[in-house]
Specification:
Layout: H1 2-6, H2 10-17, H3 21-28, H4 37-47, H5 51-65, H6 69-77, H7 124-151, H8 179-190, H9 203-215, H10 226-234, H11 244-254, H12 259-270, E1 277-279, E2 285-287, E3 292-293, H13 294-300, H14 304-307, H15 310-324, H16 331-339
Antiparallel strand pairs: 1-2, 2-3
Helix pairs in contact: 2-3, 2-4, 4-5, 11-12, 11-15
Length: about 350
């Protein structure tokens, strides 16, 4: 796994990722789920995760976070029990996005742990609760299978050929994998959104749906609702934005005091994607090139739509940097850049 591949221990990885070694051990051992995805993202970048691995990690984190409370409680009961770690052999880290000709590639990071089987530490009462939940899920699934044949006659599409308005696509959201998702992805790609059309509603699709909703002037609901379907079929919203090279060029022009670090931090935060969106478990989000948070947007007098404007985003980030002339607003990326050996 990523930790083994990095060849580093929990304490060192935690320091580089901006989290304690003991917390990182709990996360990698499956005893807890970070409340903020930034922890996962930072750890993954430190370990050298590729863009594909980062997307998969976000998907796994999102799924784990839905049932975070129970594992988190277990971890709190045994905070001091940290088994010995034995870092695996060092290997070359896979590359991330292709950097521009003048860009400095930031240290890559990779999440999750050793992948070795561990004895379960789930209490018996919790196990019983899981058993009950599993039984309920089984009943719901069985009821769903019994219902599906009766509704299949209307699954194809509407008379206008717009699949998303068919009964089969009543809801389209995270974790779904079907033709409804593929239709959404196709429409997003038609709007110049960059994403894979694979029928899998994962974090990449969620980011693009959220960006599309903001660009269309709609509430960012995390699901493809009726208003979003209408906007997708209307084809009046363009997701065309700046390429990474142009983004990096402006960052260098704005951050004249430390252009190389600024480009590296932005690449770490968003892969230099002006429409990048990162959701947090508390319902807030981070937006654009420098992943400016909802709270910071309010302080800067901005909005998610303005944050998608790379020129506004980069200049706003420079305003944050100017407060103390450092990158403390991006602790994960800054810690990784400072702690990674230059060899």
């Amino acid at each position: 796994m990523l930790k083994d591949r990095s060849g580093r221990g929990y304490d060192r990885l935690g320091k580089e990722a901006g989290v304690s070694g003991s917390s990182l051990h709990r996360y990698c051992s499956g005893l807890g789920v970070p409340a903020d995805y930034r922890v996962v993202h930072a750890f993954a970048k430190v370990c050298g995760a590729s863009p594909e691995e980062l997307r998969e990690l976000h998907r796994l984190w999102a799924l784990a976070d839905t049932d975070r409370d129970a594992p988190a409680a277990t971890a709190k009961e045994n905070p001091e029990r940290e088994p010995d770690e034995s870092p695996g052999p060092a290997q070359a880290s896979p590359g991330g996005e292709d950097p521009g000709p003048d860009d400095v590639t930031p240290p890559e990071i990779t999440p999750y742990g050793t992948g070795k089987p561990r004895r379960s530490r789930v209490p018996e009462k919790l196990s019983s609760r899981f058993a009950i939940i599993a039984a309920v899920i089984a009943v719901v699934l069985l009821a769903g299978f019994m219902w599906l044949p009766g509704s299949s006659t209307d699954d194809s599409s509407t008379a206008d050929g717009e699949l998303l308005y068919s009964p089969a696509c009543k809801t389209v959201s995270m974790g779904q994998h079907d033709d409804c998702v593929r239709e959404v992805q196709t429409l997003l790609a038609r709007a110049k959104g960059k994403l894979a059309v694979d029928g899998d509603f994962g974090p990449e699709t969620l980011r693009r749906v959220t960006a599309f909703q903001v660009l269309a002037g709609l509430p960012a609901t995390n699901v493809v609702d009726d208003a979003t379907k209408k906007a997708l079929y209307a084809q009046k919203v363009s997701m065309m934005t700046w390429p990474p090279a142009k983004v990096a060029k402006l960052i260098r022009e704005v951050f004249v005091e430390d252009p190389d670090t600024a480009v590296a931090v932005a690449r770490c935060a968003s892969f230099l994607d002006p429409l990048y969106v990162l959701p947090n478990t508390n319902g807030s989000r981070n937006w654009g090139v420098f992943q400016i948070s909802d709270r910071r947007l309010q302080e800067l007098g901005g909005t998610p739509l303005r944050a998608f404007d790379p020129e506004w985003n980069i200049k706003a980030a420079h305003r944050l940097w100017s407060a103390e002339h450092d990158f403390h607003d991006w602790p994960s990326c800054e810690a990784a850049l400072k702690s990674t050996p230059k060899s």
